[in-house]
Write a structure and sequence with these properties.
With 245 residues, this protein is of the alpha+beta class. The protein has 8 helices and 7 strands; from the N terminus they run αααββααβααββαββ.
Length: 245
Amino acid sequence: SGVARVLDPDLYCTRFRPSILAHHRTIMTSQIKSQISKKRKFVADGVFYAELNQFLNAELENDAYAGVEVRVTPTRTEIIIRATHTRAVLGEKAQRIRELTAVVQKRFRFPEGTVELYAERVANRALCAIAQAESLRFKLTGGLAVRRACYGVLRFIMEGGAKGCEIIVSGKLRAQRAKVMKFCDGYMIKTGQPVHMFTDRAVRHVLLRQGVLGIKVSIMLPHMHPRIGGPMIQPDTVQVHEPKE
């Protein structure tokens, strides 16, 4: 972002409800996991992930933040921050990642030494909907025309190996009357379980002088989403093999 900021853990901890944080700390403790119901565990884990994602998105919005993954082990909790610029997330001499670790530890009441933050580089920026939505947001903020910005992002996504892409921009684009512009290319599915398995989606808002624009980016991946399983093709894909001699 260009300007170094020192994170104050006490400032961030005051914004959270102590009951939910204490309940999540109880749930994340492996010794007593078996004493709580599965429903409470999943609800508390979902609240923890949503609040953590919101905090990292606000803190790393200028550093190409592209999502977070939480891995719980019997001894500690590992938080993997995905970004396109990992050097900016780590900071000079890993100072920023240590500050983020201290804030998360105090904010969610983790015991000392039981939470670790890591930065992971996004392998293919073109297949990351969050990264492309942020790229489009910066282009629109810089004053680039909507059509030119959207077609540039659309071409970059398709050249990166995506099967399809859809970009929707809504708001006061030119005149005072709000409207919606949709840019599509390739193959995109809209219904069924494969939507959650083979598409990556992201929504961002752009605050301009004439008002707020909404951006929605949907990318049809060539394989299953990494957070679900890994490389796997769609169930209705038909492959025609070469005839044997």
